[in-house]
Each structure stands twice: as C-alpha cells, then as structure tokens.
Specification:
218 residues; alpha+beta; 4-stranded mixed β-sheet
Amino acid sequence: MADERDPELPGLLLRTERDALLPLLRSAADGDFELRTACPGWTVRDVLAHCGSVLSRVVESRFGPDVFGPESNERDIAERADWTHTQVVDELERGMTGAGPVIAAAGGVLDAVALGEWVHAGDVRAAWGIPDAYEGPGLPHALGLLVPRALRRKVPQLVAELTDSGQKVVIGAEQEGRSPGRYRGDGATLIRLCSGRPLVGTRYELEGVREHELSLFD
C-alpha cells in the first residue's frame, strides 16, 4: 500500500460503509440503540449521533476551537437527545453521502474522519454481537487510510503480514536506532490495535512495538 494520499479514498470508504451499515440501522429495534459500546460511556445511539454530527460539521464547514474534542463531542450528542432514532440515522446517512468531496478537498487533514467513522461502525456491530465487526467491504479502504495516517502520526514503523489477504503492509515512520516492528495477524485485528479497540478473542503476533505505540487516535 502506498504512503501517498488518495483524496478519493475517504469518500469511497464512507459510501461503502453507508451501503453496508444503513440497512442494519434501519431494521434495528429501539432497544438496540441503547446497548453499550466499546466507547466509554456511549451507547449505540450516542456513537451514531456523534458520527452524524461530525460529518455534518464537515459538510457544512462548521469548525470551532475545540471541534472533535471530548467536550464538543458530548455537546453534539446532547443536542440530539430529543431526536428520534430515525432522525439520528438520517443525519448519518446524509453525512456519509456528502462528506467525501469536502474531505478530498481538505488536503488530508480530515482523512482520519472517514477512518474514524468506519471504526465506529465496527463499534456498533460489535455492540450488537455481529461477527467480524471490523471487517466487511470497507476493510481494504480502511487499511488504505491507515498507512498515511500512521505516517502522519509518526508511529513506530511496523511491517504487517496480513494472514487473511496475504498482503504485507508497512505503516509508521522509521526511527533512528530502532528496527521495524513485526505484526502477523488479520487486517481487522490490525485495525483494532491501531484504534484502541478491545482485543479479546483475537489472535496475533506483535514484536518490536508495544500496543499503545500504535494508537492513531487521541
């Protein structure tokens, strides 16, 4: 996978995930939205409200000094407390449809939004007990965004051998006096490692890099 940025990739990831996730959301029962997720303190509904609000901010270019920070996120969720589940999902669908061109034009500073939205979709599937929560048709696109994101964050270089696809992916930046780390496992588990998601039930090999060093999100 190339280190250089593909400006169309974030929008492709969002649209791919929209087509996979929205049918699940539209058919969910009310109680499904109240289940807890891997995000501390957030229910499925909270995660979806957060995702929809972030994409709306991107589409409408509404950015403040603390945008995407914890306090801003909590305000956005609170502002949607009186919305129906349908309204929350509608906003998310609009954002996943319309944010791609804006992200493409932003020069890379918003690419992580698309990756984060895809990870949050995995959080929803995990909360609902859906197998392979962080896989699906968007995984190759998510891995494509992982490479430049890791380089931008200057995580220690890691050579990842993906056992499910046979690909070898190099992420992160070389560090003087330090050999690249090694990962062997599937692509979904690599996503979990880099996004700080639970690793219970996964199987992987990691050498030369500690799990916490691979974090791509604050």
